[in-house]
């Protein structure tokens, strides 16, 4: 029962931070000459927390992710980078991913790519090929910082998961 209460608290925190961030972004004033809502920096460093539903284990567990992306092109609509995600529960799942990044519209960032998942099952660590994807809604709160809700999906041959949480990004 304590585990369920902790997971519910974690989900509540993630939802609260998303609502709070959306309120901050609505109050943020943009300069008239600002061409894009997303950051126009060469590099992007992103962090996130999420509640993740694991399909095989049929459990919700807290997780976090971090990614580093090099934005490409004059308009910074594309990028490549590396990502790491870990879902923390009885059998920790960690995923290292090579990411492709795309901004189809200024406030939405899509990341996806292949990787390797390191998962503990029955005391043994397995290394499996995997695929990870996430969508991030980006609301600028400062010139170099954005925050917003994120949803992700990961799959390997043993497990799949769906995550919902909050993302904070910094332009470098």
Characterise the protein shown here:
This protein is of the alpha+beta class and 172 residues long. 15% of the residues lie in helices and 60% in strands. The protein has one helix at residues 2-27; strands at residues 43-54, 59-72, 78-87, 93-105, 108-121, 124-137, 139-140, 145-156, 160-171. Strands 1-2-3-4-5-6-8-9 form an eight-stranded antiparallel barrel. Mean pLDDT is 82; it is low at 21-38.
Instruction: Spell the H/E element sequence.
Output: HEEEEEEEEE
Provide the structure class: alpha+beta
Q: What kind of sheet is the major sheet? A: 8 strands, antiparallel, barrel
**Average pLDDT metric:** 82
Intertermini distance: 42 Å
- Report the helical percentage: 10-25%
How would the global form be characterised? elongated
pLDDT < 50 stretches = 21-38
Care to count the β-strands? 9
Bin the strand percentage.
Answer: over 45%
């Amino acid at each position: 029962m304590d585990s369920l209460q902790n997971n519910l608290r974690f989900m509540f925190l993630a939802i609260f931070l998303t609502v709070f961030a959306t309120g901050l972004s609505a109050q943020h004033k943009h300069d008239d000459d600002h061409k894009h809502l997303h950051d126009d920096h060469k590099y992007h460093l992103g962090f996130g927390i999420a509640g993740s539903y694991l399909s095989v284990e049929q459990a919700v567990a807290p997780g976090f992710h971090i990614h580093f992306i090099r934005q490409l092109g004059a308009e910074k609509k594309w990028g490549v980078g590396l990502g790491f995600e870990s879902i923390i529960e009885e059998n920790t799942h960690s995923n290292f991913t090579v990411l492709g990044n795309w901004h189809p519209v200024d406030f939405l960032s899509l990341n996806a790519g292949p990787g390797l998942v390191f998962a503990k099952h029955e005391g043994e660590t397995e290394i499996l090929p995997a695929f990870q994807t996430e969508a991030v809604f980006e609301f600028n709160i400062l010139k170099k910082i954005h925050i917003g809700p994120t949803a992700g999906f990961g799959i390997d041959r043993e497990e799949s998961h769906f995550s919902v949480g909050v993302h904070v990004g910094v332009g470098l």
